[in-house]
Fold these 2 entries.
Entry 1:
Amino acid sequence: MAPDTLKTRSVVAREKRPVQDRLTPTVLSRGNVLGLETFSCRLKSTFVFSVVLMSFICTADGAKILFIPSLEYSHCNYMRGLAEELVRRGHSVTMYLCKEMDYRDCPGPNIDVITYKWTEYKTNMPFKKQMNKDIFEGQWKRLFDHMEIIKHFFCQMMENDMESIENLRRRRFDFAVIDGLFFSRCFYLVPYNLTIPYLSMASVIEELDSGQLIAPGLFPSKYSDYTNDMTFVQRVLNTLYFIVPHIAKFSKVPTDTFKLAPGLTSEDLEELYRKSELFLENGDVLMNYPKPVLPNYIQVGGLTTRPAKPLPPDLRTFFDGAKNGAIIVSFGSVFEDDSNVLTPILLSALSRLPQRVLLKASEDKDLGNIKTVTWLPLNDALAHPNTRLVVYHCGNNGHFESIYHGIPLVCLPIIADQFQIAKRVEHFKMGVKIDIRKLTAQILVDAIKKVLDDPAYTQRAKNFSRIFHSRRKTPAERAADAVEDVIQFGGQHLRSQHAPKNWFLLLHLDVWVFIFLVLQLIFVSIVWCTRRLLRQWLPDSSTSTFTIFMYISALLSAWVYLYL
């Protein structure tokens, strides 16, 4: 229940208390001392009773909310930001996690965990290494094939451990928060099977799949590296970036073996995604371009940003001794340089710098000015006063943590929306971007020096940080407000009741085709009438020249009409 409702209840409870409990000591002092002692005892007992009663009310009114993140730590981490805020508000939160995965410190205390088994995980480790190799080499065709396999893996995970599903059913959850990745549609089978409402939460919300508005001529796709100032060719390609993934959909999921939802098809899975009560995107207009959205789409970028915790002693000593400043180098929790292609380039470049460098790698080592660690608390390290720059793949979480702490970036995007984030970092002059597939040690050194030697980058980052901190509510608080609203009132009133499901209609192409045909009919009629008149007025003259002239005039008129 909403805090305002709880507040109203407490006010009513105070008003219904016996009159003598509301008497002031001044009034009681007119009697004897025994009256004062009686009042004191009653006041204490009333206070204790009120505390117990309010605790009971908060517990009774708190919702039971289920979180289902993807397999990677980064996804669990930004979901944890919302989960912790909901726990602070008196709700009961449970995360449904894969038993075989290492989620590090996620989800943390006060959040229950129910695990499901995926015994095939270890047998798929070679597949993950090959996928990392394909990412670095830019083998997009093979990468898309891997995405199809991952989509099937996720469906298998949800289906293989029915015992954990029964455990979820016994908990009687009220609501679910689902990771809305495009290859995790089978996650939606869980709330469907439990018959509970749900919302979608992701770093990328697919506009067409979620029924949102799109404006390809004004807003770049998350999978492009364009800004909002596009040429004609870029606008054409940007439109395809929106449409092609929606049409392609990767491979169909084999739904004939579904245990959670017998009879459901792949199209039904997409419809389950579309019927989310709410779409929470880990994005923010602060370093993005304005775009039209529906009320059920809310940006809550920066869910992992929080005041820094103390660094471990070895890292604190390392940063404290960085007289020339420190640089952080990390490629997140997903990408690993298994082929050992990137690491030698990084070590060669970073060893030439006067700054100390903290590098996330496969083992802990001290290499001169470079310290490699297997686990890097990025948010805490960014907060150190000696940190001057972060070299990053421009994943969403670290991108917002850099904004939060006002640290400029050198971006080396690897996959998906990282290219668009890197482009925005460059566009808003908070850093520079490099093509990781053309990376050399000298290119990296030059990029780092460019950002460090120009104070405008740091100043820009500090300015974005001030704007981010000036907001009245944190991203987690805004997200929790939205969740509580849809739990209490539902999300039907936030959705467009007549939003077209077909991309052709969503782009109004049917209208434009109709207009084009009408104009074409008018032009053809004008040309036909002109030819008839010319044959009557000038029977000896060739009409081919006039026909060509009329066609050119018609096309010029159309061009003037459309562009001017």
Entry 2:
Amino acid sequence: MKKKQKEESYYDDPSLPEELLYLDDPERLIREGDDTPDTPKKRRQNWMNRNMSFMMGALALMLVLGVLLYTLFLQSGPDYIVGLVTSYTMPEPGRKQLEELLASYADDRNGDGRVMVKLQTYTFVPGTTDQAQREESLLDLQVSLISDECMIFLQDKGALHEVAGEMDGKLQYTDGTAMPQGAKDFEKALIPWGDCKALSAFQPDESRLNLWDPQIYLELCQSLNVTLRGAAGTILADPDVSAYHAASAAFVERLKSGEKP
């Protein structure tokens, strides 16, 4: 009697790689050694392994977007914008040091948890041939005066002479009264650098001046005078602007006394 020939099965297929094994389900192959049951926990783990890179990238993107949204919408602008009106070009490293000096005597006016003072520069070099630059500075100054963004100015006498027409009726005398339209006695509106204890004690950081001579830079600063906008016109008409002016006046008093908030 002939012995019954053994029935071939998929297990005996010589074309299959040796490192692959069939499970009870002939439709599924797994790597040798991965013979654990196909449980829901294992499927979740496999999904995590396959998608980990994607999830990490998504998390990084969310962090970047969060920082951007915080910067754009939750942080306010500077607490004070101070106009720097000069007859020379203030070096950028020096401007930053001045901003830090002023910020140490300012208050957190907008309540965003930080104190920031921005110096807005306007350069008017007497006798300059660069009329385009002069016109640009003049336009920026006019916009600043119209918008009331600057209540405090640091300016040297040479630049003040150049912009006397724009400053006509815009400043305040040191006795607290507003200069009338057409007045020419700007000297009575100037608070010299040396009369402000907070400013006169300033010593520049030479290491941050990018080869600028610290003595020359200090002399440029000492040529500046503090001036305050006069409380008149649109400043009194708008409660928010009026509050900004009052805070700026208090800021100037701290510069004079050297007392920090």
